Amino acid sequence: MALKQPDIGGIRRAYRLGELSESEVDPDAIAQFRTWFAEALEKDVMEPNAMTLATSSTAGRPSARIVLLKDLDDSGFGFFTNYESQKGAELNTNPVAALLFFWPELQRQVRVVGTVVRMPAAQSDAYFNSRPTGSRLGAIASPQSQRIADRTELDARLAELEQRYADGADIPRPAHWGGYRLQPDTIEFWQGRDNRLHDRLVYFREGAGWKLVRLAP
After folding, report:
1. What is the three-state SS of 157-203?
2. Is there a catalytic annotation at residue 214?
3. Which of 26, 145, 174, 189 allows an S-S link to 85, with CB 3.0 to 4.6 Å?
4. How is residue 31 annotated by DSSP?
5. According to the model, what pLDDT value does residue 2 have?
6. C-alpha angle with apex 73: 71 to 79, nearest 5 degrees?
7. Assigned domain for 36 exists
8. Is 82 left (phi over 0), alpha (psi -120 to 50) or beta?
9. pLDDT at 168
């Protein structure tokens, strides 16, 4: 029996958990993000550090995927990946990207746009060495974004590495893997409101500080 097709256009949810006003936010955009991130942790949001990373080719063809925020400081948002992956190749030729955090449990989004730079090798080394053994071996085994024959090929690569490092020897960070930092020039905080009249407060980089404006939803 054929499944009944859902009424996609009729899916709706009211947003009434909060509001966002200029008088309540921090004048510093990164500080405001830290506040919201802490609240996402407190509310036990699933994968609060999951973020959509959008990059594009020099021809303007966009691509997006979920990555994990793994470092945050006053200069921006850090994540780690394979430099030879699709996103790595695109960032190498067009080092401008966007991030999107979506926390449905809080009915909130944060949008970030800025320039991306590679982290220093020492910082990439430190994070790589902090990862579980399986994650470190997986980073070496996977030729990310490249075509492979089948899953067996990937499993065989991992098995060979597990045997090679079975004696507990140090696992060196591969040269093709490391960190990036997105240095934001725009950060938007979005709070869902009733009747789709959401609150949108946007920080624009202005000199050493930030300028705050409200956008219509």
Report:
1. HHHHHHHHCCCCCCCCCCCCEEEEEEEEEEEEEEECCHHHCCEEEEE
2. no
3. 145
4. H
5. 79
6. 25
7. yes
8. beta
9. 82
Residue 186 included in any domain: yes
Q: Give residue 74's pLDDT.
A: 97
Signed CA dihedral, 151, 157, 161, 163: sign only: positive
Q: What is the pLDDT of residue 21?
A: 97
Chunked into runs of 10 residues, the chain (217 residues) has average pLDDT values of 88 95 98 98 97 97 98 98 97 98 98 98 98 96 93 95 92 97 98 97 96 98
Tally the domains of the chain.
1
Q: How far from the centroid of its chain's Cα atoms is residue 151's Cα?
A: 26
Against a cut of 0.90, is the pTM above it?
Answer: yes
Indicate which residue of 12, 108, 164, 196 is catalytic: 196
SS3 sequence, 136-164? HHHHHHCCCCCCCCCHHHHHHHHHHHHHH
22 found inside a domain? yes
Residue located via tokens 């492979």: 148
Structure tokens at 62: 């966009």
The CATH number linked to 181 is 2.30.110.10
Question: Helices 133-141 and 121-130 meet at what angle, rounded to 10?
Answer: 120
Provide the token pair at 41.
């942790």
Q: What is the pLDDT of residue 162?
A: 95
SS3 123: helix
CB 69 within 8 A of CB 103: no
- Is 144 among the domain residues? no
pLDDT for 1 = 72
Domain residues for the domain of 99 are: 17-129+175-215
